[in-house]
Amino acid sequence: MNKAGERLFNGLVKENPTLVLMLGMCPTLAVTTSAVNGFGMGATTLVVLALSNLIISLLRRVIPKRVRIPAFIVIIASFVTIVQLLMQAYLYSLNKALGVYIPLIVVNCIILGRAESYAYSNPPIPALFDGIGMGLGFTVALTCIGAVRELLGAGELFGLSVMPDSYEPALIFVLAPGAFFVLAALTALQNFVKARLRKAGKPYDKIGSGCSEDCMSCSDKGCSRRFYDASGEEEQAAPAAGAASQKEKS
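Structure (tokenized):
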């Protein structure tokens, strides 16, 4: 699989931000009362995520490490402002339905997380496709949650009535608890699929976030690139430990 395809697959399946990493839970639970709202929130986040990843990657050699987080926020906020103004002009009803959650994209942990863990340490094209993949994963998850809630809670799908007249909507699904129920069910479903794939010898458990070079905080103990980049303490400690053991033996 080529690099672009790998990043798309990673965001959609292996590292889906909603169903695997459990990131962005605030908009996931709040705006998914319908499939349209879920798709709109996901598509908005996708645009901001892809463009911010691309710009951050292009500027990765210019942005100093000490001020990278404020720089990321400024770049992300610029794209969020542009997207919000366009939605106010051309998609006013959707903008009104999503409300405050559009400006809150600025501090969405999915976008900041991808900027820090991937875009800042990888070339522009893979970073762009990483943003698209994660955005698609977020959009698909929110649309599915919204569709299930709308179908069970209102008997509709994308605003169209699909249930028979005799169907009595389960109103709990369009209320706050319904979001938790549907999210739990979809997460259990993807865990079931992963377990079946694991039994078939096709595990998708390994998260491929890309190396952030922050080995002090990395949980992948078996990484072949593992070293303490900030101070080089681990590299220096290894020869010293070897010399000490030789001295003890002698």
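The two ends are 52 Å apart (CA to CA). The CA atoms of residues 33 and 223 lie 41 Å apart.
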